[in-house]
């Protein structure tokens, strides 16, 4: 589902779109929310209504990893990345671990 597909889906499924809008956190920027909303809409059909909270949790894990660099277990990250396959986030931040920063500084000092 591309960004255009999301817009088409929203136009054709007003009730679902309104329900999904209630899941937006007040702290989420438009960019953050649009990506997370796409994640939710892409995967909503795979979750029963009583398991929707699980989908919302997974959407937050994915968004936190992409936008804030939060780290989770390898298995969990693999799952949410698979669920988000095809979602394009333009100008996503790039995060480095402390070890990566130290390593690059050491290489700079040696070179």
From TrEMBL:
<dbReference type="Pfam" id="PF11952">
    <property type="entry name" value="XTBD"/>
</dbReference>
<comment type="similarity">
    <text>Belongs to the CARF family.</text>
</comment>
<dbReference type="InterPro" id="IPR021859">
    <property type="entry name" value="XTBD"/>
</dbReference>
<protein>
    <submittedName>
        <fullName>CDKN2A interacting protein N-terminal like</fullName>
    </submittedName>
</protein>
<feature type="domain" description="XRN2-binding (XTBD)">
    <location>
        <begin position="20"/>
        <end position="110"/>
    </location>
</feature>
């Amino acid at each position: 589902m591309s960004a255009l597909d999301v817009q088409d889906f929203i136009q054709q499924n007003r009730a679902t779109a309104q329900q999904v809008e209630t899941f937006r956190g007040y702290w989420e920027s438009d960019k953050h929310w649009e990506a997370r909303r796409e994640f939710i809409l892409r995967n909503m059909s795979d979750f029963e209504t009583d398991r929707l909270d699980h989908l919302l949790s997974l959407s937050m894990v994915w968004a936190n990893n992409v936008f804030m660099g939060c780290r989770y277990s390898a298995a969990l990250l693999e799952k949410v990345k698979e669920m988000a396959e095809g979602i394009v986030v333009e100008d996503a931040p790039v995060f480095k671990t402390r070890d990566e920063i130290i390593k690059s500084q050491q290489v700079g000092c040696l070179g």
